[in-house]
């Protein structure tokens, strides 16, 4: 009887194992139908989306030292160092800095700055060996933003999310080829057409 029990247990274990192997393989086979998601960084880089909030750019000459950016910042981060000039009866900016090691890139400061001297860039590679180097002063923040498309060493990839089924490279793609998904401009076009049809 115990021999039969052992055979039964063995059969149950075998069925269970086969089920688990089947589950594992189903994930593997499912990936064969999916589009690739690998970017050969740092030789290839995705072009950040239009509303990407990267390193903040600062224009010293436009700043009026109003400190609105400090008040709207969730962590009161920007440091605005100014002096009141009695002769011209105006604040004079002496120093401006933001510590990007602490900043959460919410872009509230950019949104509310009355003179538009702050702007978000698409720069996201800020890694350093020393976190104090992330405290950018007005000179560092005034540096022109880095662009993926301007770097001759990098192949920018734009088509990644819209590759046609079965296509594994975003380069040298025929612009007329049918995409797997709609690009933002196509979605806007469709919406515009739908609105004009309903009117
Ligand atoms: S809100 Fe703009 S103008 Fe005002 S202090 Fe900040 S950066 Fe300067
Ligand atoms: S992006 Fe947000 S967290 Fe960073 S300085 Fe501006 S308001 Fe503060």
TrEMBL record:
Pfam families linked to this entry: Fer4_7 (PF12838)
Bilayer-crossing regions: none
InterPro entries, per database record: 4Fe4S_Fe-S-bd, 4Fe4S_Fe_S_CS, NADH_quinone_OxRdtase_chainI, NDHI
Record keyword NADP present: yes
Membrane topology reported for the UniProt record: Peripheral membrane protein
Reactions listed under catalytic activity: a plastoquinone + NADH + (n+1) H(+)(in) = a plastoquinol + NAD(+) + n H(+)(out); a plastoquinone + NADPH + (n+1) H(+)(in) = a plastoquinol + NADP(+) + n H(+)(out)
Residues the record lists as binding [4Fe-4S] cluster 2: 73, 103, 106, 109
4Fe-4S ferredoxin-type domain span: 54-83, 94-123
Location of the protein in the cell: Cellular thylakoid membrane
Cofactor(s) essential for the protein: [4Fe-4S] cluster
Cofactor comment: Binds 2 [4Fe-4S] clusters per subunit.
Coiled coil location: none
Enzyme Commission number: 7.1.1.-
Main location: membrane
Organism superkingdom: Bacteria
Binding site for [4Fe-4S] cluster 1: 63, 66, 69, 113
Key words of the record: 4Fe-4S, Iron, Iron-sulfur, Membrane, Metal-binding, NAD, NADP, Plastoquinone, Quinone, Repeat, Thylakoid, Translocase
Family that this chain belongs to: Belongs to the complex I 23 kDa subunit family.
Subunit structure: NDH-1 is composed of at least 11 different subunits.
Physiological role: NDH-1 shuttles electrons from an unknown electron donor, via FMN and iron-sulfur (Fe-S) centers, to quinones in the respiratory and/or the photosynthetic chain. The immediate electron acceptor for the enzyme in this species is believed to be plastoquinone. Couples the redox reaction to proton translocation, and thus conserves the redox energy in a proton gradient.
Name used for this protein in its record: NAD(P)H-quinone oxidoreductase subunit I
Chain's gene name: ndhI
């Amino acid at each position: 009887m115990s021999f039969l029990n052992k055979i039964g247990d063995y059969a149950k274990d075998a069925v269970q194992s086969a089920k688990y192997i089947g589950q594992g393989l189903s994930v593997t086979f499912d990936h064969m139908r999916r589009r690739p998601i690998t970017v050969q960084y740092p030789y290839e880089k995705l072009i950040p989306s239009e509303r990407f909030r990267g390193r903040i750019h600062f224009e010293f000459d436009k700043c009026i030292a109003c400190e609105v950016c400090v008040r709207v910042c969730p962590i009161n981060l920007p440091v605005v160092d100014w002096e009141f000039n009695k002769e011209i009866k105006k604040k004079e900016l002496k120093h401006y800095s933001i510590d990007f090691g602490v900043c959460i890139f919410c872009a509230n400061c950019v949104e509310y700055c009355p003179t538009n001297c702050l702007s978000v860039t698409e720069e996201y590679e800020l890694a350093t060996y020393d976190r104090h180097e992330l405290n950018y002063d007005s000179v560092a923040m005034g540096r022109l933003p880095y662009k993926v498309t301007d770097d001759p060493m990098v192949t920018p990839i734009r088509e990644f999310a819209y590759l046609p089924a079965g296509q594994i490279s975003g380069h040298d793609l025929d612009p007329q080829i049918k995409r797997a998904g709609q690009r933002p401009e196509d979605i806007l076009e469709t919406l515009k057409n739908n609105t004009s049809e309903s009117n």
